[in-house]
Amino acid sequence: MRDVLWPNEPVYALITTDYFSGLGQQYGGVFKGIDNLNKSVDNINKALRYLGVRATQHQDEFDLIGLGAIRSQPDYLDKYSDLAEAYGV
Predict the structure, then answer these.
(1) pTM reported for the whole predicted model
(2) Domain count, the chain
(3) How many CA atoms does the CB half-sphere of 60 hold within 13 Å?
């Protein structure tokens, strides 16, 4: 992102979610470059709100941008999960 947006530091959200049968966990954080902009942002909807996404009467931020339709990561990203496991991350 830095290369694309140079010389500006990008503001972005890192999000992760892990659910099975309705139970699970999620995390969201907002960053500029490598700096955490707001440590009180600790879930996906808070991170999206920080970036300017606004819920409607019928959809929260997560669903509004289409994340509710994504049920699993694409197969081509599996290599990164394998690398993280190999490095103990």
Answers:
(1) 0.73
(2) 1
(3) 9
